[in-house]
Design goal:
The chain is mostly beta strands. Helix content is 4%, strand content 38%. A hairpin with a 2-residue loop joins strand 20 (285-287) and strand 21 (290-292).
C-alpha cells in the first residue's frame, strides 16, 4: 500500500527486494548523505519477488547492494532497532526460495546474490533454493542459497542455510570474493556433482574465513577450494556429511565424505584450529595442529 514506505516499523515495506531496488536507485541522490544504510527485518517469511518483478519468478534473486547492512530476527512486536534486542532463533526471518508449495523443482535458482563490497547479512534463515533444477530455464546450476562474486568486505553472521541444492555451492558459491562467516549453520544441503565441488565452493582467489560455523548432515564435501582459494576454519564442526542422500545419517559411516576438496585444500591454503570432525569426515589435512587425517 501507499503507506508501506519502509521508513519505520509503523510503515514497513512489503518486499525485501524492493528495499534493495530503492537503495540502488536513490543511493546517489536521496541517500547520498547517509554514512551507512541499514535494513531491519522482523520475523516472518520473505520471498524473492517484489512489486516490480517481471519474467520468471524462479530467476528473481534478492541482490544486496554495496554498503548495505541487513539485520533480521526482530520480534513482530519489538519497537526500536537495537541489534542486541534481536533473537533470530526465537523470531526467525526466513528467506525462502519456495515459489509453489511442494514444487521443489520450480524453486528459486539463486536466492541471494552479492556482487558488491562492504555488505553485511546477519540473522536470517535461508532455505529451499534450487539451482540444480533446469525447469523453465537453462540458468547456471551453480550457487543456490548465497552467491557472492567480485566482492570484498562481506560479512555473513547468524545465518542458517538449509535444504538447498546446486551442482556446486549449494550453500555458498564464492567467486573472487573475500567473506567472513560467523556463527552460521549449513545443514541438509546437497551438491549434485561430488567431483570438484563443495557445499561451500570457492574459486578464483576467494578468501573465506569461518568462525563457529557448522556443516552438518549434507551431501557433498563441506568446502571446495580452487588452487588460489583460501579457507580459515576455527571453532567449527563437521558432522554427518555423506556422498549420497540418506534418511538417517547417524549410521552411514560407509558413505562419509572428507570435509575438504580441491587443489587448494592443502596445509598452505587451509588453516585454522579448534575444529571438530566426526570419525569419517575428517579430511586428509592438518589445520593448525588439529589432525584431520581420515581414519
Amino acid at each position: 500500500t501507499a503507506a508501506q514506505t519502509g521508513q519505520s516499523w509503523d510503515n514497513p515495506g512489503r518486499f525485501l527486494a524492493n528495499a534493495f531496488e530503492y537503495i540502488k536507485e536513490h543511493k546517489s541522490s536521496d541517500l547520498a548523505s547517509m554514512t551507512e544504510i541499514i535494513v531491519y527485518v522482523k520475523q516472518g517469511t520473505i520471498n524473492n519477488t517484489n512489486s516490480k518483478a517481471t519474467g520468471r519468478v524462479r530467476l528473481s534473486s534478492i541482490d544486496i547492494p554495496a554498503g548495505v547492512k541487513v539485520y533480521g530476527g526482530y520480534a513482530a512486536d519489538l519497537t526500536g532497532t537495537d541489534v542486541s534486542k534481536r533473537n533470530p532463533i526465537q523470531y526467525p526471518s526466513i528467506i525462502t526460495g519456495e515459489v509453489t508449495e511442494g514444487e521443489y523443482d520450480y524453486n528459486v535458482a539463486h536466492l541471494i546474490t552479492i556482487n558488491n563490497s562492504n555488505v553485511t547479512l546477519d540473522g536470517f534463515k535461508i532455505t529451499l533454493a534450487n539451482a540444480y533444477s533446469t525447469k523453465l530455464t537453462s540458468e547456471s546450476t551453480d550457487g543456490a542459497a548465497i552467491t557472492i562474486k567480485n566482492a570484498i568486505d562481506v560479512n555473513i553472521k547468524n545465518i542458517i542455510v538449509s535444504n538447498c541444492q546446486a551442482d556446486h555451492g549449494a550453500a555458498v558459491y564464492a567467486d573472487k570474493a573475500t567473506v567472513t562467516f560467523e556463527n552460521c549453520i549449513f545443514h541438509n544441503n546437497t551438491v549434485r556433482t561430488l567431483a570438484n565441488s563443495g557445499l561451500i565452493h570457492g574459486i578464483n582467489g576467494s578468501n573465506l574465513t569461518f568462525d563457529h560455523c557448522n556443516v552438518l548432515r549434507s551431501v557433498g564435501h563441506a568446502s571446495y577450494l580452487s588452487a588460489d582459494t583460501k579457507n580459515k576454519w576455527t571453532n567449527s564442526m563437521f558432522y554427518g556429511n555423506l556422498d549420497r542422500a540418506q534418511d538417517n545419517t547417524n549410521n552411514c559411516a560407509q558413505y562419509a565424505i572428507i570435509a575438504f576438496a580441491g587443489p587448494g585444500a592443502n596445509n598452505t591454503n587451509l588453516t585454522g584450529g579448534n575444529n571438530m570432525f566426526d570419525t569419517k569426515t575428517k579430511g586428509q589435512f592438518t589445520i593448525a595442529g588439529n589432525i584431520t587425517g581420515a581414519d
